[in-house]
């Protein structure tokens, strides 16, 4: 028998956490986070991690599971999420997936490509070359070996340029070709049912994003990044420090920008993340859409959740 699993998806600042907590007040659920930033310990403010009280009010999973010096892949999420769904159902509770990392959701529902795992030594070498030559030069290098991938990436998109070069150097194959290859379809008895919180007016979401980033700064985001920086084992090439907000504050602490510029760059980067998340969401035709700008958005989510049983 196929079991329906509710998935509450949406861009940053769309109200996913509030809706999930409202559902938790009604029925015994456990939340599986679908968020690549929330996996990291010591990163609470800039990731908008649920508060201690919120985490205590309902069981949460895949939050605070990885040190910022380490990586966590979509393949690991796929395996962990399927395991957790089974364990939660066995306890007689309802698993609900909540988050906005669409790569994780796609890995879970449509399968994984056979991409090589990250290689820290190779990444360090590529970062050193980029420090010497600049990311536009690395982008030009990528264009020589994988023009399809290079054509869709801005020349300063360091994270994706590095990953594409890493894949080519490790496998001898273009990332674009590997992504076009048939996926390993997940074998599961679950049917994941996406409910998407999307804005009818993107300007409203942009205002929320700016307000939330200002709140993060007021709540100690700069001090949080200072503590992470003081560890001495982190740098901006790592996935954790590439999370929106952290890289911009790190640059500010390094004296590369002033506070106002850091704030504006942080807001802009968050809006760009939101745009990418919405693009991913629109590629899921089976999703049920709730206007996150509506005053009764949470009630609408709860009604849809009830319809899924």
TrEMBL record:
Q: Which residues cross the membrane?
A: none
Question: Which residues bear the site annotation Interaction with substrate tRNA?
Answer: 101, 123
Question: Which InterPro entries does the UniProt record give?
Answer: Dimethylallyltransferase, IPT, P-loop_NTPase
Positions of the region Interaction with substrate tRNA? 35-38, 159-163, 242-247
Could you say which residues bind substrate here? 12-17
A single MF term (Gene Ontology): tRNA dimethylallyltransferase activity
Question: Keyword annotations for this protein?
Answer: ATP-binding, Magnesium, Nucleotide-binding, Transferase, tRNA processing
Q: State the superkingdom.
A: Bacteria
Where do the annotations place ATP binding? 10-17
Q: Name one Pfam family in it.
A: IPPT
Cite the SUPFAM superfamilies for this sequence.
P-loop containing nucleoside triphosphate hydrolases
Q: Could you tell me what reaction this enzyme catalyses? A: adenosine(37) in tRNA + dimethylallyl diphosphate = N(6)-dimethylallyladenosine(37) in tRNA + diphosphate
User: Record's family?
Assistant: Belongs to the IPP transferase family.
UniProt subunit comment: Monomer.
- Functional note: Catalyzes the transfer of a dimethylallyl group onto the adenine at position 37 in tRNAs that read codons beginning with uridine, leading to the formation of N6-(dimethylallyl)adenosine (i(6)A).
Q: What is this protein called in UniProt?
A: tRNA dimethylallyltransferase
Q: Which organism is it from?
A: Pararobbsia alpina
What phylogenetic lineage does the species belong to? Bacteria, Pseudomonadati, Pseudomonadota, Betaproteobacteria, Burkholderiales
